[in-house]
Amino acid sequence: MLNKNDDESSKYKASFDDSGKVVLKKKSNIKKGKKSKTSGGQFELRVRKDLEEKGWIVDKWSNNINLEEKNVIPAKRKFNPFSKVMTIGTGFPDFIAFQLMDGKLYRVVGVEVKTNGNLSREEKEKCRVYLNKKIFNEILVAKKLKLKNKVFIEYTSFGKIEKRMR
Fold first, then answer.
1. Hey, CA dihedral for 46, 51, 117, 135, is it positive or negative?
2. Torsion of CA 130, 132, 137, 141, to 10 degrees
3. Which CATH number does the domain 4-164 belong to among 3.30.390.10, 3.40.1350.10, 1.10.275.10, 3.40.710.10?
4. How far is 154 from 46, CA to CA, in rounded Å?
5. pTM > 0.90
6. 83 forms bridges with which residues in the sheet?
7. pLDDT tens digit sequence for 33-88
């Protein structure tokens, strides 16, 4: 016969944070996190293919912005000790896209991929810094739209998002 404590302990998984403290995570949340990470990665690939089909040259953006100093820095790489893999693409925004405009001029756009289309407060501040420093002409937020079992991509300019902000 199972004790109530045995049943409760099987719902959680113990792991350690950077400082060595024990962190208990719900197994159901771990499954949700894995699923959302894979679906986000698949949507990111779909956005990249869509931009390339529209004539853009797309590359992974591997830089980030330091909000205190307001300058561009290389994004930190994340190491997974279990799979022995180094994650490189952790910059903000996700992609940089180029498009030749008038034979000589290029349009340079940053693309952030969000399945729900919502940016956090920190991400909005980073977008403002990128645009004020003229690193990007425009920043687009790609959002996933599902209509009748078909997935569509809606691109929203950060300028429109900024106008809606308080």
1. positive
2. 50
3. 3.40.1350.10
4. 12
5. no
6. none
7. 888 888 888 999 999 999 999 999 999 998 998 889 988 888 877 766 666 666 66
